[in-house]
Amino acid sequence: MKTFKLQTWHFGLMLIILSIATNIMGTWAVNSIPNNVEDSRFVELNDKTFEEAISTGAGFVLFYKENSDLCDKMEYNLNQLPVDDREKINYYKVNITEFAALEAEYRISGVPSILVFKEGKERERILGVIPESNLKIIYNRVTK
């Protein structure tokens, strides 16, 4: 009986197939969001309004770059969070291309990045795109 032995080229082929599949699935996931974020609940902040906006209450601050599919996906996911009038959660966004000083001050290493503030203090830091279900867990933790 002949036995099958894995060779080096088998691993190379598996790596190539895995890379292609990941790329296709990632592109599909990003393209599955609506392109319009005009009905967004986010308020655009700048370096002059930032400190005042985060000083009271709780808020999510999205640091983003223009024309980034990943940033649009994260904004879309945040817009899917429930609106709770009892616990007013504010939603802000900052374009790091225009306000690099805020990017440096808050040590933003990449976009999209979300900082969750409560009463002016950073409570959570979210890097990259995360699913709505994880955002809901963070939202519930902030509103307690």
Describe this structure in words.
It comes from uncultured Dysgonomonas sp. This is Thioredoxin domain-containing protein. The chain crosses the membrane at residues 12-30. The structure is a single chain. The protein has 144 residues and is α/β, with parallel strands linked by helices. The protein has a domain at 43-142: Glutaredoxin (3-Layer(aba) Sandwich), CATH 3.40.30.10. Helix content is 40%, strand content 20%. The chain contains five helices and five strands. Strand 4 and strand 5 form a beta hairpin.
Please report which band the strand proportion falls in: under 5%, 5-15%, 15-25%, 25-35%, 35-45% or over 45%: 15-25%
Number of E-type strands: 5
CATH architecture of one domain: 3-Layer(aba) Sandwich
Provide the CATH top-level class of one domain: Alpha Beta
Structural class call reads alpha/beta
Q: What is the share of helical residues?
A: 25-40%
End-to-end distance, in Å? 65 Å
What do we call the CATH homologous superfamily of one domain?
Glutaredoxin
- Describe the biggest sheet? 5 strands, mixed
* Count of individual helical segments: 5
Strand order, main sheet: write it out. 1-3-2-4-5
